[in-house]
Amino acid sequence: MKKFVVKVGNIKYPFDTKEEAAAFLQNSKKPQTRTLAIPQMPPIEVGASGPSAAGWHSVADFLACHKMGQLRYVRGLRRPVHQMFNPFATGILVHAGRGTWLAHHCRTDKATRAVVKAAVEKEVRDAKLPMSLQAERSSLFMIDEYINYWSARALPKTVAVEYEIGPAPFAPNDPFYLMRTAKLDDVGRYAESNYQLCIGELKTTSQSVKSVVEEYTLHGQTMMQQHLWRVAKEGAAKHGPVVGTMLDIIVKGSAKKKPSFAREFIPFTERQLEWFAVSMRGYLKAIVATDWATPVPRNVTACAKSYGEGAREFKVPCEFRDLCKHGRVAAGKYVDKNGRLASQWQPTADEPTPPWE
Ligand code: SF4
Fold first, then answer.
1. Ranges of each domain in the chain
2. Distance from the CA of 306 to the center of ligand 1, in angstroms?
3. Ligand 1 contacts CB of residue 324 (under 6 A)
4. 179, 186, 188, 180: which is closest to 162 by C-alpha?
């Protein structure tokens, strides 16, 4: 019996030793961190773009609605789409442009701007789904405005960009399958934190700065980053403690209005991080115990998510709403991880119950 199981997405990989499991997870990541050294400037550690394999996004759906997590990550269901949702595409592209600018010491010369633009264009080319031309153009415009705005102010001293930490545990001696990773947008010393080290987290929003601060003052993503920084070997052990999270907020503009920018510092209390680690362990145990046929609860308060604010607020339904409403009748709208229609399901030892149940 293999003792160490790594769960990536909906697939479990068994190993005999913890070292083999750790090596597998390390090798399954995108290219390793490289160091970008510009003469006479301190070197910055630069990782690959994109989320980490076992980060916040791999648990957030389960926390919102356990059935949503099971349908997406265990049963591998999705609705076939031909293009990435514009807000997601914009978020990915702006992250790529900003990360590249920070990695180049916030320079504003022509060569740096060209490198930033090339990083955004590469992200468009490498994306798993096509991104719209509108998302690409608006992201390049936003990044250009971002550079114009922040380069006229005190610049951060960046230590790392797209920096992956973990796998690390939530309690000492936790088994490997309860460990998690985090991909940090950046780690650096900002003027807004009196040049004390903090974790930088970029947020693009159609809402106000105040709404973003309210949301992330107590939020699983930022708390998980803070916890893992304290325990992962790539975190405090290597770079020293962080004092909190710097939310780097871009409020998207419109046809008539330019984007606007703000940086808001969020501190974390020890009490908060202690109860968070205990809570996360409980949730993670339930998540890793979820198989294809495990009965799990549905949370009907998560069936639609709000975007925008005030008169511009709109709701986006959960991807699985039709499946929860109509069951088998809606199964033809979904495909599994092999691209097969969910309606063509046949019982097997691994998939004994209908995917729509
Ligand atoms: S539609 Fe609602 S109940 Fe169904 S998976 Fe989505 S959030 Fe859960």
1. 156-288
2. 15
3. yes
4. 186
Choice between 248 and 4, residue whose per-residue pLDDT is larger: 248
Q: Give the pLDDT of residue 313.
A: 83
What DSSP character marks residue 170?
S
Band (pLDDT 50/70/90 cuts) for residue 312 is confident
Phi-psi region at 308: left, alpha or beta (left = phi > 0; alpha = psi -120 to 50): left
Inter-residue contact 55 to 47 (CB < 8 Å) = no
**For residues 209 and 261, what is the distance between their CA atoms, to the nearest angstrom?**
8
Beta-carbon contacts of 260 under 8 Å, excluding residues fewer than 6 positions away, are 250, 251, 253
Q: Is the pTM of this model over 0.70?
A: yes
Task: Provide CB contacts within 8 A for 314, sequence distance 6+.
Answer: 306, 307, 308
User: 322 in ligand 1 pocket by Cβ < 6 Å?
Assistant: no
CB of residue 67 inside a 6 A radius of ligand 1: yes
Residue to probe by mutation, ligand 1, list 298, 301, 315, most atoms within 8 Å of CB: 298
Contact (CB, 8 A) for 26 and 41? no
Strand 157-168 to 44-46 pairing: parallel
Distance 315 CA to ligand 1 centre (A): 14
* pLDDT (tens digit per residue) in 126-138: 998 999 999 999 9
Q: Tell which residue, 149, 142, 94, 146, has the closest CA to residue 119.
A: 94
Tell me how far apart the alpha carbons of residues 239 and 218 are, in angstroms, rounded to a whole number: 24
Handedness of CA 127, 63, 284, 334 (dihedral sign): negative
